[in-house]
Amino acid sequence: MENTVLHVADVHKSFAGLHALSDIDLSVKEGETHAIIGPNGAGKSTLLNVCIGRLRPDSGQVIFDGANLTGKHPHEINQLGVVRVFQTPEIFPELSLLENVMIPILAKRDGAFKLSWFRRFSGEKTVRSKAEDMLEDLGLGALTKVDASSLSRGDKRRLELAMGLAQEPRLLLLDEPTAGMARHDTNATIDLLKRIKAQGMTKVIIEHDMHVVFSLADRISVLAGGKIICQGTPEEVKADPRVKEAYLGEEQV
Asked: Domain 4-81+169-252 is of which CATH architecture?
């Protein structure tokens, strides 16, 4: 875990004069699970959007594995091995679960990919097998032929996670991965992410559920008002009075 995989250096971002991010500096080491927490409107999702190229910072840089991501398009960043799982699941509702997972596998392999090409590749056995295995790992193996539109919100979250993992990312960015899940599904997701951690995958997680955060995080950055007010281990963050005042509250630590 000595190597820094992601470095966000002095990033600023404003919207119509409102400072969404100010003086953001954080580093994520290889194999680390780094959680970003904070109240609504703190700038967490804005920060992830800057990291994946959906937003360009007003100043500062995002460095991934030595490469400057600033100014690159989202698909270029994705091809470098950075994958984001969104707060609102981005899936293909008219396709089956199996087809949903096959698409990112093909896109990772072949580069730019168009949905109109999909049927041409859908019979490939190796791709199908990999997609089936990923769905099985996520507890969705019995639903491979079901249309994604019929899934519960929690299962849609798990499907998008499967789509992200199928791309074999070097850095996985998760925006509230357990939102909308029942507690048993949340615990199953925690177990899955722990298994991924054991395989050495680097992850950045935005999450409001402190049970999830403290179960997974090696380090935590706390955002409030677009600024990082605290960084450290879970124990250090729990003990910081600024964090208690801004977010966690006495009863949560």
From this structure: 3-Layer(aba) Sandwich (3.40)
